């Protein structure tokens, strides 16, 4: 897969670890910035990755800000995105098995680099379970309004 990765200055300190984990799992990195700890606005970087996903330029995306909260808010406004803020391997595994996450969100000020690497590896390697979980995803569109 090609994985689009975007961060703000709060996420930048763990971006290289995330990129390394993606590469080690055999996937291609599309780095969409930012490229320093200089202050930037996270919606602008979320938009770069979300647009790349929507245009089919990458298969999944990883968004990183300080807490992961701002990037989560941005991600889940976009049609077809299932953005999941994960703090550990368990939430990363569940986000794939139960929620078919296609957008991993991380908080660079909340987790350390080793945990970030673990999360990315688990998120990339864990398949969606389908079945009742697909029914529940369908129900999100039915009850909340489809944004496909
Ligand atoms: C930037 O200071 C910070 O607000 C941002 O990285 C993120 O945590 C927002 O939700």
Would you give an account of this structure?
This protein is of the alpha/beta class and 148 residues long. The chain has one domain (2-144): Ribose 5-phosphate Isomerase B, Chain: A (3-Layer(aba) Sandwich), CATH 3.40.1400. The protein is built from 6 helices and 5 strands. The protein has a 5-stranded parallel β-sheet, with helices on both faces. Strand 4, helix 4 and strand 5 (103-107) form a beta-alpha-beta unit. Helix 1 packs across helix 5, helix 2 packs parallel to helix 3 and helix 4 runs parallel beside helix 5 (113-125). The longest helix is centred in the N-terminal third of the chain and has 13 residues, at 12-24. The two termini are 22 Å apart. The relative contact order is 0.18. The mean pLDDT is 97. Bound molecules: D-ribose. D-ribose binds next to helix 3.
What's the helix and strand layout?
Blueprint: E1 2-7, H1 12-24, E2 28-31, H2 42-54, E3 60-65, H3 69-75, E4 83-85, H4 89-97, E5 103-107, H5 113-125, H6 132-144
Parallel strand pairs: 1-2, 1-3, 3-5, 4-5
Helix pairs in contact: 1-5, 2-3, 4-5
């Amino acid at each position: 897969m090609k994985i689009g990765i975007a961060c703000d200055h709060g996420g930048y300190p763990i971006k290289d670890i995330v990129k390394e984990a993606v590469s080690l799992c055999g996937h291609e990195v599309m780095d969409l910035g930012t490229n320093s700890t200089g202050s930037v606005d996270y919606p602008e970087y979320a938009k770069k990755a979300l647009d790349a996903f929507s245009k089919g330029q990458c298969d999944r995306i990883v968004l990183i800000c300080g807490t992961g909260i701002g990037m989560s808010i941005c991600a889940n406004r976009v049609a077809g995105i299932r953005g999941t803020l994960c703090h550990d391997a368990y939430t990363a595994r569940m986000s794939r098995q139960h929620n078919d996450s296609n957008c991993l969100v991380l908080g660079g000020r909340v987790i350390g680099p080793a945990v970030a690497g673990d999360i990315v590896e688990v998120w990339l390697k864990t398949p969606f379970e389908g079945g009742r979980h697909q029914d529940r995803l369908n129900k999100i569109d039915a009850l909340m309004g489809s944004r496909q």
